[in-house]
Amino acid sequence: MNWAEQIVKTLKDWDTSMIVYVPDISIHQVTSLIDADPFFRLVPATREEEAIGIAVGAYATGKNTAVFMQSSGFGNSINALASLCIPSRTPIPIFINLRGGLGEFNIAQVPMGRAVIPILDQLGLPHYTLEDDGNMERSLDGAMKLCYANRQPLGICLTTALHGGKVA
Amino acid sequence: MRRFEATQLVSRLAGESPIVSNLGPTSSDLWHSGHRDRNFYTYGSMGLCSSIALGMAMGTDEQVISLDGDGSLLMNLGTVASIGREQPKNLTVIVWDNEKWGQTGGQTSHTGMGTDLEQVAQSCGITHTKTVTDLEDFEAAVSEALASSDGPHFIVAKIEEAGGTTSVAPVEPELTLYRFRDSFVEPRKPGD
ipTM score of the complex? Predict the structure, then answer.
């Protein structure tokens, strides 16, 4: 089972069936699997803060949801996290393709990519950077458990070391 | 048409249907129209009211009502496109359009300068749209939308800028979310 298949399995294990996303070429390796699987409903949003709003609405009616986005789009979602999810204690696992690290070719991706983790820290939100190190199943399961126990968003960062990155 | 009177009407017509309200006076008006557990008041995240309602409409088969505002929806017009794309049959978006940013000094918003939100909705593939200016037409439009199963519906309600507004409702985001959610799922037990 590769990293993308492991994420899909974990989402199913946690009955997280509604996935809201803004497309990204690296996370396409996961969202294409989700799109092909009738267990899930995959909902494209026009912008990342909208994705958070849709996810909160679905959670409010009893559905577990997760959001997928790129690090640049994480910048678009900050106020939705800060003024909606955190005060209302909405648990949403957020899978973030972290640009701006090893192998990055685009200077415009570096500042926001490097700011994601400090911003998550400033907001007081837990986050984990996923590595394909043989412990993925345990790490993902633990992250989901923490997210729902803490009833707050949680960042799961995906790097080029995991998915290979975008080739310029 | 005054927003508070129109809100009271929506609250009466909605029955048990979930209502999401835009931040500020829209949420206060809804609270003062008679609190119910299925009112989802928002306190921040300007622009996301109808996005939250869209997520709800995909999470339940019940009719879902969004009480949005012109300034707020203008911040997130993309969500009108998402509603058009998803075509939730059980979603009614009501936009209180006073053509102003009423909470920041009454500056003229884009709808006061020609932007037509009903046309935006039409362009996004939402076919059931109306713009209404008086309470009688508003009641007819909301009644028709809630009785139908062929949503989404999009109603632009032109309102006067109210003189005396309702007092600020309690700010309790966590309570709002979980009492709302508990009306859809089994309440959490100790240790959950």
Answer: 0.97
Contact B55 A50 (CB under 8 A): no
Whole-angstrom Cα distance, residue B15 to residue B65? 11
Which helix (DSSP H) or strand (DSSP E) does residue A136 occupy?
helix A136-150
Residue A111 lies in a domain: no
Residue B108 bridge partners (DSSP) = B100
Tokens (6 digits) for B27: 């949420």
Number of structural domains found in chain A: 1
Q: What's the pLDDT tens digit per position in A92-102?
A: 999 999 999 99
The two structure tokens encoding residue B8: 């009271």
Tell me, what CATH number does A122's domain have? Answer: 3.40.50.970
Q: What is the pTM of this model?
A: 0.97
* CA dist., res. A67 & res. A90, Å (int): 12
Residue A144 covered by a domain: no
Give the pLDDT mean for A131-147: 92
> Closest Cα partner for A42 from A15, A18, A25, A70?
A18
The amino acid sitting at B87 is Q
Is the predicted pLDDT of residue B4 greater than 80, yes or no?
yes
A135 and B CB contact within 8 Å: no
A166 lies in some domain: no
Q: For residue A64, give its domain range.
A: 3-105+116-130+152-160
Residue A42 domain-assigned? yes
C-alpha closest to that of B130 among B100, B95, B160, B98: B95
Query: According to the model, what pLDDT value does residue A131 have?
Result: 81
List residues in chain B touching A: CB distance below 8 A. 18, 20, 40, 42-45, 47-49, 51-60, 76, 78-79, 81-82, 85-86, 173-174, 176-178, 180-181, 184-185
Residues of B in contact with A82 (CB under 8 A): 44
**Tokens 């009614």 correspond to what residue?**
B92
List, in order of start, the domains of chain B with CATH numbers: 3-181 (3.40.50.970)
| Closest by Cα among B44, B85, B51 to B66 | B51
